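Box 4.2: Ligand-aware structure prediction
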Amino acid sequence: MLKVLLAGLGVRGRHWARVIQDSTRAELVGIVDPAAAALERARDAFGPLPAFESVFAALAALDDVDALVLANPPIGRQSIVEAACARELPMLIEKPLALDLGEAARLVRIAEARGVSLMVGLNFRYLAVTQAMMRLLADEVVGRAEFARFTYERWRDGRLAELNDYPLVMQHPMLWEQSIHHFDLMRYVYGQAPVRVQCQTWNPSWSLYRHDSNVAALIKFDGGLRVNYQGTWQGNWAAPGFEWRSDCSLGIITQREQFGGLYYARRDDRQLTRVSLPPHERWISETRALFAAFVDHVVDGAELQCSGRDHLMSLAMLQACIESSATGSGVEIDDVLPRG
Ligand SMILES: NC(=O)c1ccc[n+]([C@@H]2O[C@H](COP(=O)([O-])OP(=O)(O)OC[C@H]3O[C@@H](n4cnc5c(N)ncnc54)[C@H](O)[C@@H]3O)[C@@H](O)[C@H]2O)c1
């Protein structure tokens, strides 16, 4: 049994507590949150676990810990990463690793220097729909993807109690908190590296967010693929809109819901063909699969997936979007990727 310390017991941390406790290969040995109310709520829901107000206090008190799952907001994580590395604890850290590319690169270097594994919580890779889309592309069921349109429209009321509230006041909330998943999915599913980004970000007049909640980007990949991306957290209809359509040499693949809804068609087909997918519990099923990959790595020595080093490439796409929007010019990914 992998003995796991969980830090950060907000919206996401509560998913993690459930997933770790339900795992047959792991045990939740302690919980951490500086907010007493969060600790109390977690103990009510998940049992009388040893509870601490900081990772440092937990590590000082607990001898028997094998790994850290970190689900605090992505701010000020360096001292926590250093403390985990000093104990050689593999880490599974929620996305985005940091709200600054240079800071994220520093965290990756700290872990690499100590030879400690750092996995990033990119759960959308583990959705059945994502895996099925990858199979359609790998099998070239409708040929090779040449261009795509990725649309994500959501009215995200950041004031709701069941949502985290720090995005209301941060810079570029849409990019760092949401588009990071979408950019990571593009790299993962197409297996191509981003080369160049042209982007504008802005805020609609009715926005609840202090900074830009709209992102429009044209992204070019090294295999020649171009993706037209439009994401918003302030789409002005409460019903969500999602479509990720890939135009391929023989037809299209289209995903029409965030957690499912996969179809394809050859050019002259009159109707879309639905791809059958297994039942899914949102935020839980795919997090279980992500956690299983972490346990397989730590316990069985399987290859590390979603490494911090790999994540830097998706963060570089965000950084390129920010610079492109500020300057009005296209930005090369190579020009923003940290060296070393
Ligand atoms: N992968 C996903 O699908 C997904 C979904 C939601 C959130 N997230 C990510 O999870 C992280 C947390 O988001 P959230 O929605 O749970 O936020 P939240 O604001 O709901 O909860 C964060 C919790 O962390 C606690 N905290 C603050 N500083 C801490 C510290 N130093 N040590 C331990 N705990 C600390 C806070 O008191 C709070 O209880 C973010 O990185 C976010 O982007 C990921």
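In the box above, the bound molecule is nicotinamide-adenine-dinucleotide. The mean pLDDT is 97.
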